[in-house]
Amino acid sequence: LKNADGDAINLTTAGTVFFIMRPVAGGSPVRAAATIVTPNPDFDADPDAYHVRYTWTAGDTATVGSYDQEWEIMWPSTRPQTVPNSGYNTVIIEDDLG
After folding, report:
1. Residue 50 and residue 11: Cα distance in Å, rounded?
2. Burial class, 42, CB count within 10 angstroms (exposed 0-12 / middle 13-18 / buried 19+)
3. What's the whole-model pTM score?
4. Beta bridge partners of 93
């Protein structure tokens, strides 16, 4: 995850990171914990380049459509931080051709 300046967010002291996704047209959001992945010195030049991983569940992709998506970082004793901090990521779930 990166801040507004494009720099990696150091998640060393983060409690939990949540994956949040809701249909653009309205409806119930998905809000589930993601896994914080420690930087790998063999691949990450930046020692603060923590990654997050979300494992999809069957219901997450059951409805075709466009979704707004963001990450919510829970910091100890402070307010949550959302990424991106302006706007949303877009997730598009398409129908199976088969």
Report:
1. 6
2. exposed
3. 0.86
4. 65
